[in-house]
Amino acid sequence: PAPKPRPAPKPRPAPKARPAPKARPAPKAKSTPKAKSADRAKPADEDTGFPDVPADEPGDKEERQGT
């Protein structure tokens, strides 16, 4: 009998335990628009990066300094 075709391998879930993006908020703050796009594309980064991004956003800092 002909060998049965193997089922397609399941896609691996992106690694969520990634301290790298959280460890360096400085580069994220500089390129906020780029960081946001990258974070949205990567769900793994969304969890760890999003909470930090708003606080590091240059816009927020400028508003705080102005007042």
UniProtKB/TrEMBL annotation:
Compositional bias segments (type: Acidic residues): 46-60
Biased composition (Basic residues): 7-33
Biased composition (Basic and acidic residues): 36-45
Residue numbers spanned by region Disordered: 1-67
Superkingdom of the source species: Eukaryota
Protein's name according to its UniProt entry: Putative lpxtg cell wall surface anchor family protein
Species the sequence originates in: Amblyomma aureolatum
